[in-house]
Every structure is written in structure tokens, then in C-alpha cells.
């Protein structure tokens, strides 16, 4: 037995076939090396879908949205899904904050705040019969606006549109209010402005809805002078009386007017809408609409531009959970 056998010399001779196979082997090795290095350096994205094992039928949606040009009274959160849920003006678990012209929170508008009902007078005769003893409402246009305030210290104005059903319902009540204030001799003129004939003027006055009822003193809207409550003669008269009492107090204590005005903006402020919704785990959507149960929106002044500050799903993580996640590589 020989452990040191030698290869015959004839097997050591080079051949064309051997050289060709050697070149092919080197090429394969080089190609493999290049492809492996390329795969190592290349980023690879893998998509994986995991089935949610949560047994609950609803999903929590958290949101924080700001609308710089929409009043909180007209910001309605609506919900819809494919199994038939259609809910308008959702208020549960939702907060609203008034924003100033710089987008800064100024006044808390409430949580779970539901839109209140507005009562209307229905016992007044037709407007034509009420005009039998004269027209008591001052119907003015843009050119007559300044003259009206020069002759009257206090003016209560209805900005309306003839096509607006709410404005039509208010017309007789507004005439009755003018008669009532004349009888009481309160020194308040009751006026009306047609925003169809005076479109540019109403746009400059920032009239966002019809009817818009505002109380003016020497041509300037008083603090919280926009009326949004019952449209009855009794309620409107009570509002005017309280405003006159407030103005008398402000005459005696001017600093009170300044302090009150600091928390109020004459322009239509914006609104911050935040909170969460519990939605069914089916296709659907939620959206914020400009809507009012007792007004018609002025489309020329309706601006739904908004900023999404936060949008997430599920129960928000606590600070401790966030800190724990930050420690995980």
C-alpha cells in the first residue's frame, strides 16, 4: 500500500478545454461575489400583514383639527360607514376651542356640547298687515349705513337673504320687535340689510350666516353683540335691554369694557376641534362640515381651510409607555 502515489505527468499537461473551464469558473466566482456585495448594500423593503386579533367591534379615532375661519357654532362633526351608520353633529367626547385671528386658543366652547334649539314666534300676522300702520324696520343699503348710525346711537341689525327660509320666518318677528322698542322708547333703531342686493357690503361685514343679528353702538359692534338665541319678541327685547344695561355700566367703568373685550373678537373667530370617535370597524369616514340647524350659510364667507395637528387610532399611549418605547432599539 502506497500513501504517496504520484499523478502521472500526462495528467498535468494543460489543455484548451481545461483553460476554458477555468475561465468559466473564475467568471462564475466573480459574478457571485459582485451580486452578493450588491445584495448586501441594497435596501430591501418587505411588506407584512398581520391580522388584528382585537375582538372589539369599534375602533377609536383620535383627532385634533383647527379651522381658522369657521365659528365653533357652525363646525359639525359627521360620521358615516357602510353598514348604515349616519350620524350628524357628533358631540360626545369632542371639545371645541375658539381661536383668534392668529390661531391661538382664546375661549373654551365646551365638551359634549349639543346645538341648542331656537324658538320662533308663530302668532304674528302676515308682514303686509303689519305694515298697515307703517314700516318700523329701517331697510338700509351700503350707502345709507353710516347715516343710520349717525342718527341712532344704538342699532339692532338683521343681515338677511330673501331666499333664506329662516330669514323669512323672522321677518314678521323683526317688524314686531321694531314696534315694541318704539313703544318702550329705548332709543334703539331696528334695521335690516339685504345681503343679496348688498353682497360686497355683507362680505366686508363678515356675515357668515343668514340671518345674522348684531347690536351696534355708534356704528361699532358691542362685545358679544351677535345674537344666537330664541327669535321671539320677548327674547330679543330682553337681549336689547341687557345690552343697554351693560353699556351703561361700561360708561361708568371703562376698564370693564377693555377687560371684557380682551377675551372676545369682533371677527368670526376660528375653531379648534379635538377629541375622539368610536367608529365601527368597517369602511367609512368622518368629516367636519359647516352646518347650522337654524341658519343658512353664506357660501361667499364659508372657508373650511384647516390644519390636521394630530390623527391616530386606538387608545393613546401614556408618557410612561412612550419613554419605554424610546429605550427600545
Q: Descriptors for this entry?
A:
five-stranded antiparallel β-sheet; alpha+beta; 329 residues; five-stranded mixed β-sheet; 30% helix; single chain; 8 helices; Glutaredoxin; 28% strand
Describe the structure.
This protein is of the alpha+beta class and 329 residues long. The chain has two domains: 58-115 and 267-316, no CATH class; 127-261, Glutaredoxin, CATH 3.40.30. It has helices at 16-41, 127-130, 145-151, 165-184, 199-204, 233-252, 254-261, 319-326, and strands at residues 58-67, 75-81, 86-87, 94-99, 105-111, 138-140, 154-160, 188-194, 209-210, 212-217, 220-227, 270-280, 284-290, 296-297, 307-313. The chain has a five-stranded antiparallel beta sheet, with no helix packed on it. Helix 4 (165-184) packs across helix 6 (233-252). The chain is rod-shaped. The mean pLDDT is 86.
Shape: rod-shaped
Weakly predicted, low-confidence segments = none
* Element-by-element helix/strand order: HEEEEEHEHEHEHEEEHHEEEEH
CATH topology of the largest domain: Glutaredoxin
Helix content: 25-40%
CATH superfamily of the largest domain: Glutaredoxin
Amino acid at each position: 500500500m502506497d500513501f504517496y502515489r504520484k499523478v502521472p505527468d500526462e495528467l498535468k499537461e494543460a489543455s484548451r478545454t481545461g483553460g476554458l473551464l477555468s475561465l468559466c469558473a473564475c467568471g462564475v466566482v466573480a459574478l457571485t461575489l459582485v451580486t452578493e456585495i450588491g445584495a448586501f448594500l441594497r435596501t430591501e423593503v418587505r411588506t407584512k400583514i398581520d391580522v388584528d386579533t382585537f375582538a372589539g367591534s369599534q375602533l377609536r379615532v383620535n383627532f385634533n383639527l383647527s379651522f381658522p375661519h369657521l365659528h365653533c357654532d357652525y363646525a359639525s362633526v359627521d360620521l358615516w360607514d357602510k353598514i348604515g351608520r349616519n350620524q350628524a353633529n357628533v358631540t360626545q367626547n369632542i371639545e371645541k376651542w375658539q381661536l383668534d385671528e392668529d390661531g391661538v386658543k382664546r375661549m373654551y366652547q365646551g365638551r359634549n356640547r349639543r346645538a341648542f334649539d331656537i324658538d320662533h314666534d308663530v302668532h304674528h300676522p302676515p308682514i303686509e298687515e303689519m305694515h298697515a300702520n307703517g314700516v318700523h324696520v329701517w331697510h338700509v343699503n351700503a350707502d345709507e349705513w353710516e347715516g343710520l348710525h349717525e342718527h341712532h346711537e344704538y342699532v339692532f341689525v338683521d343681515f338677511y337673504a330673501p331666499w333664506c327660509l329662516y330669514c323669512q320666518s323672522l321677518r314678521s318677528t323683526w317688524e314686531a320687535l321694531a314696534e315694541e322698542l318704539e313703544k318702550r322708547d329705548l332709543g334703539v333703531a331696528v334695521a335690516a340689510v339685504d345681503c343679496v342686493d348688498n353682497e360686497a357690503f355683507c362680505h366686508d361685514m363678515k356675515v357668515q350666516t343668514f340671518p345674522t343679528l348684531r347690536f351696534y353702538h355708534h356704528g361699532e359692534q358691542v362685545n358679544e353683540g351677535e345674537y344666537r338665541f330664541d327669535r321671539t319678541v320677548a327674547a330679543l327685547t330682553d337681549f336689547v335691554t341687557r345690552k343697554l344695561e351693560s353699556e351703561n355700566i361700561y360708561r361708568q367703568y371703562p376698564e370693564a369694557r377693555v377687560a371684557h373685550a380682551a377675551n372676545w373678537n369682533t371677527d368670526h373667530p376660528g375653531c379648534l376641534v379635538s377629541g375622539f370617535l368610536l367608529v365601527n370597524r368597517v369602511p367609512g369616514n368622518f368629516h367636519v362640515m359647516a352646518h347650522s340647524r337654524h341658519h343658512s350659510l353664506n357660501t361667499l364667507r364659508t372657508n373650511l381651510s384647516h390644519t390636521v395637528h394630530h390623527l391616530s387610532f386606538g387608545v393613546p399611549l401614556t408618557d410612561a409607555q412612550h419613554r419605554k418605547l424610546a429605550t427600545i432599539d
